[in-house]
Amino acid sequence: MAVRRRPAHGGPGAHGVHGGPGADRAHGADTALSAADARRVRAVLALGGVPFGELDDGVQQVQLKLLEQHLDPDRAPVRNPAAWAAAVASRVAADWHRGRTRDAGLRDRLAARWTRPAEHPEDARLLALAVAEGLEELPPGQRQVVVLRYYADLPVKDIAEALGIPQGTVKSRLHGAAAVLRTRLREREVG
Questions:
Q1: In degrees, to the nearest 5, what angle opens at C-alpha 176 toward C-alphas 171 and 181?
Q2: Radius of gyration for the alpha carbons in the chain, expressed in angstroms and rounded
Q3: CA angle at residue 121 from 120 to 124, to 5 degrees?
Q4: Cα–Cα distance between 131 and 181 in angstroms, integer?
Q5: Contact between 158 and 149 (Cβ < 8 Å)
Q6: Cα angle at 92 between 86 and 95, to 5 degrees?
């Protein structure tokens, strides 16, 4: 790996340009991966299952971690940069898989929530239309909190924070909106 390292015992550059221990860390020693090391990191990532289109991002993550390691004055310098980069690349690949699994689980949960088959599709369609009409008839403040609570699935605390109003006001508007919608749905004999 083409990482310029501090000499272990004295010699030119042992204490950086300004002479103190770790001075080269503060003044940016060359921490770039060489072309050969970047290829090695790409190979580790590919063997770890990272898709071809995301290998460059993985190499950049390894490069960033190398730079963080180099700039942290509390960390010892990397003794074997090639082995260190390979180990970091394998962790980046594992993190990629964890993120992918987490994203897939979220997609599955959202899909299951929104694709439940209606037992009576016509009834569900009529109910959805009646609710949409009822929402249009609500005052803007009530409509806003209903949409944020039940369509955006935000908790009361987050709605209050987003709108800059007290939580009690959000609850009051939700309660009032639910009463109005319930009455209107009963009048239309839906639900």
A1: 125
A2: 29
A3: 90
A4: 7
A5: no
A6: 145
What digits encode the pLDDT tens for the residues 135-155? 888 888 898 888 888 877 888
What percent of the chain shows pLDDT beyond 70?
74
**CB distance 55 to 46 below 8 Å:** yes
Cα separation of 163 and 171, whole Å? 13
Q: Give the C-alpha separation, 44 to 85, whole Å.
A: 9
- Residue 4 tokens read as 């310029």
The mean of the pLDDT values for the chain is: 75
The C-alpha atoms of residue 40 and residue 45 are separated, in whole angstroms, by: 9
Helices (H), the chain: 23-26, 35-47, 55-71, 81-114, 121-137, 140-146, 156-163, 167-187
Q: Give the DSSP per-residue string, 65-110.
A: HHHHHHH-TTSPPPS-HHHHHHHHHHHHHHHHHHHHHHHHHHHHHH
In whole angstroms, what is the distance from residue 58 CA to residue 35 CA?
A: 15
Task: Please answer whether residues 157 and 146 qualify as being in contact, where contact means their C-beta atoms are separated by less than 8 angstroms.
Answer: no
Residue 153 corresponds to which tokens in the numbers above? 């699935």
- Residue 48's closest CA among 38, 37, 35, 58? 58
